[in-house]
Amino acid sequence: MAFAGLADWLAGGSLALLYSIPVVLAALLEGRLAGLSAAAVCGIGLFLLPRAHGGAGTAAELLALAFLAWLVDSLTARERRLRRHHQQIAEQLSSVYEKVQANFEGMKRAERLSAIGQLSAGLAHEIRNPLASISGAAAILSRSRDLSPKDAKCLDIIMSESQRLNGLLTNFLNFARPRPPRLQTVELEPVLDNVLGLAAHGVRGKTVRFEKKIDPNLEPVECDPEQLEQVLLNLMINAIEASPEGETVTLSAETGDGKISIGVIDRGHGVAPGHIDRLFDPFFTTKEHGTGLGLPVAHQIVRQMGGSLVARPNDGQGMTFAVVLPAKEKKSR
Asked: Lower Cβ count inside 10 Å, N or C end of the chain?
């Protein structure tokens, strides 16, 4: 606008047509209001500079600039609307694509779980009987008084490893064929107290403190209390093992958006970012002697109760594993 005004002034007021350029640009780039504003500013230049045709012609030029701003905006408004519409569609498609990808990953995981579950069930039944025979025979031999220390040690190894394999087979069966949950509406705090009591016996000489944080407005939850205790105890034991000496393991419960989130929070070394998405995959473990079935079994149990099990790193250190279940509203009395 300054350039148009300067050129018009140098030409003695005969280049009023130049004012249309900033008006068109303003309306084209910023819309009708900007175009009309530019027309008003240019009108000041029209009235300040002397005109051969007088005030009436200057007023007509000002009206022409205002009409030009309106016309340009009208012509470009449809294009802007289409651009915004296309942008919204692109954002919606991006959101749908992300959801499809997440569902696809979930389907792949479910397919892997199903295949591994069937294989595990078959292997467990085939292995359990001969394993029981080996364990029983070793127990009979261990009662002999004529054993040398070396033979006694070998039998102890056989029996302990048999017990370990039997526990692994039990996890296989729990993973392959978990029993259906017996859903009922329960108050959550007694369940959490039981979990804390059981976890205290699993510390095994480690100096770890326990902390409970319960939302005072906690609603009842629909779940299988026995299975929920199993899942939370598994998470608590994992948290105890991951925690350094003297640290605190927190068991929390809070409600919101019609759901209840039960968190087990440790302050240990955490999990590598690349491993977090694989924590619920069967046989994946970050423990030296882990089986990689504890979290997948827990994940499957929670899913059968209509909830979800999520893992996320803490802001400071350690991990939080959260069981998210639908809340059951209390009935008014």
From this structure: C
